[in-house]
Amino acid sequence: MKVQVLFFASLRELAGTHASQIVVEDGATVADLWGVLCARHPAVEPMSTSVSFAVNQEYTDRDHPLADGDEVALIPPVSGGCCAEADTDAC
Amino acid sequence: MFDIRKTPLDLDELVTAVSDPEAGAIATFIGTTRNHNDGRIVSTLEYEAYPEMAIAEMRKIGDIARERWSLKKIAIAHRIGLVPIGEASVIIAASSAHRVAAFEACHFAIDRLKEVVPIWKKEHFDGGEVWIGSQKGAAFPAGQDGPSR
Lengths: 91, 149
Fold this sequence. Notes:
The complex is a heterodimer of chains A (91) and B (149).
Chain A: E1 2-7, H1 9-15, E2 19-23, H2 30-40, E3 52-55, E4 58-60, E5 71-75
Parallel strand pairs in A: 1-5
Antiparallel strand pairs in A: 1-2, 3-4, 3-5
Chain B: E1 2-5, H1 11-18, E2 25-32, E3 36-37, E4 40-49, H2 51-69, E5 73-79, E6 81-84, E7 88-96, H3 99-116, E8 119-125, E9 128-131
Parallel strand pairs in B: 1-5
Antiparallel strand pairs in B: 2-7, 3-4, 4-6, 4-8, 5-7, 8-9
């Protein structure tokens, strides 16, 4: 089956692409897909512990089973808003 | 209203969006781009979003806040692309019958936004650039509804 993978921010730069169609085996999970992506784009592998995943725009677990046509987004640690959390003078 | 846009944010627009004849208070929060972070002089900030999901997550934050603080209305707008120093990157407005609810809802919404809404910030500084958040520890464990505060 085929899934659409979206890369954002640091992961987009590491992978060198924003979107990619990936073929995975039937029954594959999000974790299986990540393994395929790490093999194809070794530069993303260091993000293994920090990446989160969304399937069809919902945060999901790594053992979530994929379905044909799913949109899987790779979500690096988010940092929207205004200022760094660690700052003592954070807003 | 929940919005992500490449153009400058307008406080009046959000205030108007949450105005309500039954409200006795409107609180607003404006996050602005700061010229320093982590000992560096920051020249520009750049934001990137997963827009469809970011709007959906903002809507969830709005639903939680409306329910928890019995708000009249809440609006969140985030700017993406290059945002010059000193300008607004995010604005939140909340209206409620009494002031405490509106204040607390704004505080909750910005904290939650920074945890779960898929928007990323890159700092450009003299000698380099860095995606904030990606250089340190984990996002929240997958499958959970994000960390609570």
